[in-house]
């Protein structure tokens, strides 16, 4: 039997290109590519989608849904990097660390949705606390997050980098919140896989740096006072996360309130997990005021996109999970 064949539909995009670069160096699989002049040829794309063992969709949502409709080979597996199928029935969510059974579900699936970068950080920090009952499912959660501009795709990357090249000083605003009408497409994904009663209040922003992200979840634990739910300490939050991820290679729970992680003793860098497939989790807390802050740091193009896709691909093909991620 030959090596598995992998087709990336949308190979020329930001995520597709990163995935291709990660896979092209490998000899344990074959990447089959579409000819540049046929990238919009539906019949040729359909042929390759049905010929590959696994196809990775790096497409806009509607194009991803259309592409899935072309697959007639029951053995052809699909890994969708768009948001089109992340909460869809009959699709398995591609966050292997979410539950003890999730990795097995991915391995057995023919349809897997790659998580979003912001939801990856949020779910890594919050889902184990909800599952363990440390936080109630109806806790009013807020998510404040910042990502490098590469998360905006080719257009935003070009905008930032062209302004830099013109030596205009600050390329764009150093910190720019967006999605201020709320109802961002990521919140349903966050709610569903964290097991929350309500959607979290999500405020994303883009920073004046290319790559990296911080996902911050403040916890006003004092709101649990007087309820039937005990108010957890910061150490309890940290211990719960540490237990959940004890055997996970790609989620690292950092030492509790470790000041050495802070630049100048005050600042948490957004870019320190870049070029890894890690989610780094931090817990900061003040038990006296009953306040805590959960922070996830990851590479928005790594574990937040292409790294997670390669990890899921390895699981789907029963290949060593670290392959191509070192």
Topology readout:
Elements: E1 5-9, H1 14-24, E2 30-32, H2 42-51, E3 54-57, H3 61-69, E4 77-80, E5 92-93, H4 102-108, E6 111-113, H5 117-131, E7 142-148, H6 153-165, E8 175-177, H7 186-194, E9 201-207, E10 213-219, H8 234-244, E11 251-253, E12 279-286, E13 291-298, H9 302-316
Parallel strand pairs: 1-2, 1-3, 3-4, 4-6, 5-6, 7-9, 11-12
Antiparallel strand pairs: 7-10, 8-9, 10-13, 12-13
Helix pairs in contact: 1-9, 5-7
Report what the structure shows.
The chain has 326 residues and is of the alpha/beta class. It is built from nine helices and 13 strands. The chain has a seven-stranded mixed sheet. A six-stranded parallel sheet has the order 2-1-3-4-6-5, sandwiched between helices. Strand 3, helix 3 (61-69) and strand 4 form a beta-alpha-beta unit. Helix 1 (14-24) crosses helix 9 and helix 5 runs parallel beside helix 7. The two termini are 27 Å apart. The model has no long low-confidence stretch (mean pLDDT 92).
